Amino acid sequence: MNVKKRNIGISYAWNGIKEVFRSELNFRLHIVAAIVVICSGVICHLTKIEWAFILICIAIVLITEIVNSAIEKMMDFLNPEHHPSVKVIKDIAASSVLIAAFFAAIIGTIIFAPKIIDFIQGLL
Ligand SMILES: Nc1ncnc2c1ncn2[C@@H]1O[C@H](COP(=O)(O)OP(=O)(O)OP(=O)(O)O)[C@@H](O)[C@H]1O
């Protein structure tokens, strides 16, 4: 692939990210949560392995939200009418975000809870 073609691909991908950011409140909320978690990680001096888990969790949540948004938009385009099959497809797509966010919350708790407890004990 030549450089020009690759740059065009990156620009299309960046357009996709901007579109999801503009149209999806949940994606913006996930970005805010990711920024809060990254700042907390810097403050808590996470280890390399902890950073790896946190960054993988953030990436999986954002990717599932983007894929969910793409499926929602595709279904709205293919069938703008209310339809039980569209509901099933959209609900299944949304469930991927829920699963990703649920396990990200558990991993975040495993990593941050001991540090927060240590910090509180240090204050007492
Ligand atoms: N055309 C449709 N036919 C049947 N049910 C639908 C249809 N469109 C949406 N729904 C139902 O409404 C839910 C929300 O769909 P919508 O496309 O509005 O996504 P959203 O409000 O952006 O939600 P999300 O929080 O997942 O981004 C779907 O999961 C589905 O249960």
Describe what this molecule looks like in 3D.
It is a single chain. The chain is mainly alpha-helical and 124 residues long. It has a single domain (29-123), classed as Helix Hairpins (Orthogonal Bundle). The protein has helices spanning 3-23, 25-43, 48-78, 84-123. Helix 2 (25-43) runs antiparallel to helix 3 (48-78). The protein starts with a helix and ends with a helix. The mean pLDDT is 95. The structure holds adenosine-5'-triphosphate.
- The total number of structural domains is 1
Mean of the pLDDT scores? 95
Shape field: globular
Tally the helices.
4
Give the biggest sheet: none
* CATH topology descriptor: Helix Hairpins
| CA distance, first residue to last residue | 60 Å
Question: CATH first level: which class?
Answer: Mainly Alpha
Uncertain runs with pLDDT below 50, 5 residues or more?
A: none
The class by helix and strand makeup works out as: mainly alpha
The CATH architecture designation is Orthogonal Bundle
The kinds of small molecule bound in this structure are: adenosine-5'-triphosphate
Number of strands: 0
Portion of residues in helices? over 70%
Output the helix-strand order.
HHHH
Q: What percent strand?
A: under 5%
Radius of gyration: 18 Å
Key phrases:
single chain, 124 residues, Helix Hairpins, 90% helix, binds adenosine-5'-triphosphate
Give the helices and strands, then pairings.
Blueprint: H1 3-23, H2 25-43, H3 48-78, H4 84-123
Helix pairs in contact: 2-3, 3-4
The structure holds adenosine-5'-triphosphate (ATP).
The site of adenosine-5'-triphosphate has 11 residues, from helix 3 and helix 4.
InterPro entries: DAGK, DAGK_sf, UDPK
Transmembrane segments: 25-43, 49-71, 92-117
Pfam families: DAGK_prokar (PF01219)
